[in-house]
Design goal:
heterodimer, A: alpha/beta, six-stranded mixed beta sheet, five-stranded antiparallel beta sheet, about 40% helix, B: mainly alpha, 8 helices, binds adenosine-5'-diphosphate, binds magnesium ion
Chain lengths: ~260, ~220
């Protein structure tokens, strides 16, 4: 089943085109890794997908619900109600967590399900505690974000997104703000979600991780998808010179 | 004049000073938020008008502003203001002035909250109003508390400026007694009063800061 369909997305900032006719289709259960040099438009693509940026061209639909589409050359977004409903289909995990610092861990997880989705309190709390357990954060529910390590904060952020029961989860470089020791605990959690068949789109610089968890790897450069396909093929045996250059540089960079 | 009679004479002035203080805060703290919104408005004329208002309030003496508010209606429009207007003029003058200062503090606080907080809230599905009231504002309050405390301490001392339009608060009374009995004692009492008043304000604000120290 198709969860997300982004077609011919174009996006400019101050007259500079950052996304040049990009299409992305995500099926249920699929794990997609997006790689590419910094400035290639990866974050912008995710931000367009979750309506943090408005697109200048193309269309976006989730599970058949049209969120944005082009009419006579101009993009029209759906009504506020439709967009609100569609927001319930996805979650986003930020590079720098963006937890609410004045809310305890458990409140970070339960507040939106209760206030936004109006789900029953007891059920929400029960589910949130189960999520914390899965994230290895048992016993930390009354802590505040500043009392946690970066890795723990990012796992809380993942749990917060999951508490709303999204159909698809986006990650924008979830480990880039973390020390190497803390990176692995976050990647482990994401790998576990992949095993549970959670649909995910992950922007990452962790090539080994991408190769292991992704069903498909997309290489972006200069606002276009240069190539995409099987992780082993893209990462071990890329076709395009730009992909090769990027991967070589990354290898070099990592020593 | 015995110290006791002096203090009891001054005590009505103290009450009036406290009244001016409380009324000013009740008016200026919320009004400042609306002024801050105006200052950050995307509507250019609104932004410019508010910017001008703030610069006048901060750029001219408060004493002068009080006199304009009190005498202005008569000298500018020939309106005869009743005797009760004196108190109103004091409050209007103080509220307008302090709202401008609070507005700039609020604006600084609001602009210091990272975009990520708004973005996280938006993706989680919170409405704009809910995001501001429950997610942004509490963090703003924590950050601006020291600056607001500063203003609140200055206001205690500024209430004495109401003497400029002969409003019978603490300082005005002290001055009258001092000149009629040729003694400096009332000023000593006044000084002690302002000091204790500020001590209490500082103490209460410190308590507030402590209560918000559970997060960073
Ligand atoms: N809000 C913005 N305003 C102006 N330019 C932006 C904005 N966001 C991103 N850009 C530009 O768009 C390009 C792509 O950025 P981004 O999507 O963040 O790349 P990536 O995530 O792949 O590093 C960069 O050149 C960046 O400077
Ligand atoms: Mg990025």
């Amino acid at each position: 089943m198709n969860l997300l369909e982004m077609k011919n997305i174009r996006k400019s900032f101050d007259g500079v085109e950052v996304l040049k006719d990009i299409s992305l289709s995500v099926d249920e259960g699929e794990v997609i890794a997006i790689i590419g040099p910094s400035g290639s438009g990866k974050s912008t693509l995710l931000r367009c997908a979750v309506f943090l940026e408005t697109i200048d061209g193309g269309s976006i639909s989730y599970i058949g619900d049209e969120a944005a589409a082009e009419y006579n050359g101009a993009v029209r977004y759906a009504s506020a109600e439709t967009l609100h409903r569609v927001r319930g289909y996805f979650g986003l995990v930020f590079q720098n967590f963006n937890l609410f610092p004045h809310y305890s861990v458990i409140k970070n997880l339960t507040d939106a399900p209760i206030k936004v989705q109006k789900r029953p309190r007891d059920e929400v709390f029960e589910k949130a505690r189960a999520l914390l357990k899965r994230m290895g954060l048992e016993g930390r529910e009354n802590a505040y974000p500043h009392q946690l390590s970066g890795g723990q904060q990012q796992r809380v952020a993942i749990a917060r997104a999951l508490a709303l029961e999204p159909r698809i989860l986006f990650f924008d470089e979830p480990t880039s703000a973390l020390d190497p020791e803390l990176t692995s605990e976050v990647l482990k959690v994401i790998r576990q979600l992949a095993e549970e068949k959670m649909t995910m789109v992950i922007v990452t610089h962790e090539m080994e991780f991408a190769r292991m968890v992704a069903d498909r790897v997309i290489f972006m450069d200069g606002g276009v998808i240069v190539e995409q396909g099987d992780p082993d093929q893209i990462i071990k045996d890329p076709r395009h010179a730009r992909t090769k250059a990027f991967l070589n540089k990354l290898d070099g960079g990592l020593g | 004049m015995s110290l006791q009679t002096m203090i009891s004479t001054l005590s009505s002035g103290m009450l009036k000073s406290i009244l001016v203080y409380v009324c000013t805060l009740v008016g200026a703290l919320p009004l400042g938020l609306f002024v801050a919104f105006g200052r950050m408005s995307r509507i250019k004329p609104v932004q410019l008008i508010i910017k001008f208002y703030i610069s006048v309030m901060r750029g001219t003496p408060l004493m002068l502003q009080l006199m304009v508010v009190f005498f202005g209606p008569f000298f500018l429009f020939g309106i005869r203001t009743g005797s009760s207007y004196r108190f109103a003029a004091v409050i209007i003058g103080f509220v307008l002035n302090y709202a401008a200062y609070f507005a700039e503090i609020y604006r600084g606080g609001i602009e210091s909250i990272s975009r990520g907080q708004y973005e996280a809230a938006q993706v989680l599905g919170y409405s704009k109003a809910h995001t501001f009231v429950y997610i942004i504002l509490p963090q703003v309050v924590k950050r601006i508390l020291p600056a607001v405390t500063n203003e609140m301490i200055t206001l205690v001392k500024d209430t004495s400026l109401a003497f400029a339009i002969s409003y019978a608060e603490m300082f005005t009374m002290a001055k009258q007694i001092a000149s009629s009995h040729s003694t400096l004692m009332p000023f000593v009492v006044a000084g002690i009063f302002y000091y204790i008043f500020n001590f209490i304000v500082a103490f209460l604000m410190e308590r507030c800061e402590k209560r918000l120290s559970y997060y960073r």
